[in-house]
Amino acid sequence: WFRTFAFALLAVLATLPLAPSRLSAQDLPVIVGRIEGDDLVVKTTTHAGVEINAGPTVGASGSDVTLRSGHALLLLDAGGEISICGPAHFTLLKSAGAVTLALDYGRVHPSLDSPETLTIYTPMIVATPIAISGARRDTTLGLDQNGEMCILTAHGAMRVEPQFSGQSLIVPQGGLASLANGQIVSLRSDASSCSCDFPRAS
């Protein structure tokens, strides 16, 4: 009887550590993609609490991402990628197949082959990369902590809508612009001033 009771107790105890893992997996928000970087902190709120991870890790809807320095790369589940240049801070959201990146500061460089919608929110503007003739979208948006902004459109265009007005403007393909208060203030010729590429091995 004692041996039978001991084996039954061990069997019950062995299952206890598995229960929180199953609950945590079920409570995870919608996955946006996988992110890696040198000096990266990703905070994701689940029903079980707040998970804090360094890269490489999963970026989910609601994840708060801080890149203190260097570079990071977000590989989107739906296809395509976003290069990030630090320092940068943003929040990821995903709903109904559309990804929203709420950018506080930093440079982000989406390179998108899929038709999935990506919208970049900043405190002043809403920016949406636009495909031309169904081709890939390859654009960069940079926002300094002092509020200065740049937009680079290597492939495709970028629609820019100020948060506090009904107007919108288009930065055409091949364009490079600097903005203040959601308005283009100058066109520049030096693309390096707004570029952001994740370093890759040969």
Low-confidence stretches at least 5 residues in length (pLDDT < 50)?
Answer: 4-25
User: What is the overall shape?
Assistant: globular
| Content-based structural category | mainly beta
* DSSP, total strands: 14
Can you describe this structure?
This protein is mostly beta strands and 202 residues long. 12% of the residues lie in helices and 55% in strands. The chain is globular, with a radius of gyration of 21 Å.
List the main descriptive attributes of the protein structure presented here.
single chain; 202 residues; mainly beta; 14 strands; 55% strand
Please provide a brief summary of the model.
The protein is mainly beta and 202 residues long.
Q: Could you give the topology of this structure?
A:
Layout: H1 2-15, H2 18-27, E1 31-46, E2 49-53, E3 57-60, E4 64-76, E5 81-95, E6 98-112, E7 118-121, E8 125-130, E9 137-143, E10 149-155, E11 157-162, E12 169-171, E13 176-180, E14 183-187
Parallel strand pairs: 6-7
Antiparallel strand pairs: 1-2, 1-3, 1-4, 4-5, 5-6, 6-9, 7-8, 8-11, 9-10, 10-13, 11-12, 13-14
